[in-house]
Design brief:
Blueprint: E1 2-6, H1 10-19, E2 25-30, H2 33-42, E3 46-49, H3 55-60, E4 68-71, H4 76-88, E5 94-98, H5 108-111, E6 120-122, H6 124-137, E7 141-147, E8 152-158, H7 173-176, E9 182-189, E10 192-193, E11 207-213, H8 217-221, E12 233-237, H9 240-252, E13 264-269, H10 272-282, E14 287-290, H11 296-301, E15 309-312, H12 317-329, E16 334-338, H13 342-347, E17 355-357, H14 359-371
Parallel strand pairs: 1-2, 1-4, 2-3, 4-5, 5-6, 12-13, 12-15, 13-14, 15-16, 16-17
Antiparallel strand pairs: 7-8, 8-11, 9-10, 9-11
Length: 375
């Protein structure tokens, strides 16, 4: 497949890295010569420096016979204009644009065929919200991915001493839960992927990857943990917009029996004005507290000693890391930190922070799902 990527930032680089090894012919356009040089040094792809909205430059990039355009610069305007040019001038059949302006979601006709001609819009905040809802629904999970339009889940869980299957063989999963549709697909032990058979024993500390009917995913985790249960008390902090989206998404997903709404949701917002607006928007769905989420008194007043899951979502990676460590110290059973810098995520892997999430990775997952659709 011939793929043209507009933008060599975090998402563009990640998309190129994910797709370059799959026999794709990839071209990347960016205004920054250094970004293009770094990409060409790392991967077998073509890099072009310049303005992606120049028809002449797009012609040089072989847009005339490109199968897929992915526009992921930091500018919504550039991404949407690129999809328009890709359709009207070059007839590129599939056109994906990253858009962050949430107001535009109310005008889908402008974004798609009748306007900017994007065949698919990726909303980074919405992608992150969807992923966090999955992690809230299966609080023991380290990762959750979906297939078959959400009907199948791939879940990674760390096996815990005392779990019904821990110490037993992989092949006994269906004997433990005979009515569940599930298979263990992989075991990682001390960062090594094991070659497994039905007789391979699961040890405490193993990262177990299983594939299951999405309705049975939580049931499988109960076999790998000492006490696996839904998160009843959840505290979300650091980003009013994301907090609102997560709470609303949980309630909207209630029609699906596989989603459990926490009994108590508390949201911490530092700005008093934003906290009032958030409280009005959430109504009785969550309690909103005004205060700094990295402050011990604020966390204690939010009920951290009884918290099943604490989520820090500010734009500051360092604050998210410190506040989740503090939350853990104050009694939170599990923590999730939004960490966009990859090096930070790697540094704290295996620390007291249970899960790190990245808006870049969430958006990347959405893009890759569309690119690989049908595989």
């Amino acid at each position: 497949m011939k793929i043209l990527i507009i933008g060599a930032g975090r998402i563009g680089t990640s998309v190129a890295e994910s797709l370059v090894s799959e026999d794709n012919d990839i071209t990347v356009i960016d205004k920054n010569p250094e970004s293009i040089s770094l990409l060409q040094a790392r991967f077998d792809l073509r890099g072009i420096v310049g303005n992606a909205l120049s028809p002449a430059l797009l012609t040089e990039a072989s847009a005339n016979d490109t199968d897929l355009l992915i526009a992921v610069t930091s500018s919504d305007e550039t991404n949407l204009a690129a999809t328009l040019l890709a359709d009207k001038l070059f007839n590129i059949p599939t056109r994906i644009a990253r858009v962050r302006n949430e107001e535009l979601r109310s005008y889908p006709r402008i974004l798609k065929e009748e306007g900017f001609s994007a065949t698919t819009i990726i909303w980074p905040e919405q992608a992150l919200t969807r992923y966090l809802v999955k992690l809230i629904n299966i609080p023991e999970a380290l990762q959750v991915q979906e297939f078959a339009e959400g009907r199948v889940s791939l879940v990674v869980v760390r096996a815990e001493a005392g779990g019904p299957m821990v110490g037993g063989p992989v092949g006994e999963l269906n004997a433990h839960i005979p009515n569940a549709c599930a298979r263990i697909a992989a075991l990682f032990r001390r960062n090594q992927c094991l070659s497994i058979t039905g007789n391979t024993l699961i040890e405490a500390g193993d990262e177990v990857t299983f594939v299951a009917d999405a309705r049975h995913a939580r049931l499988v985790t109960t076999q790998l943990k000492r006490r696996a249960k839904a998160a009843r008390n959840v505290i979300i902090a650091g980003n009013a917009e994301l907090s609102l989206g997560i709470v609303n998404a949980l309630y909207e997903a209630d029609e699906d029996e596989s989603v459990a709404i926490p009994a108590a949701i508390r949201v911490i917002e530092a700005d008093r004005r934003e906290a009032r607006k958030l409280a009005l928007a959430l109504e009785s769905r969550a309690i909103v507290l005004s205060g700094d989420f990295d402050d011990e008194d604020t966390l204690l007043s939010a009920g951290m000693e009884n918290c099943d899951l604490f989520i820090a979502l500010s734009d500051d990676d360092e604050n998210n890391i410190l506040s989740t460590l503090l939350a853990k110290k104050l009694g939170a059973k599990r923590t999730i930190a939004l960490v966009n810098r990859r090096i930070y995520g790697e540094l704290i892997e295996g620390s007291r922070i249970d899960v790190t999430v990245s808006q870049t990775q969430a958006a990347l997952d959405e893009i890759i799902r569309y690119v690989r659709h049908g595989d």
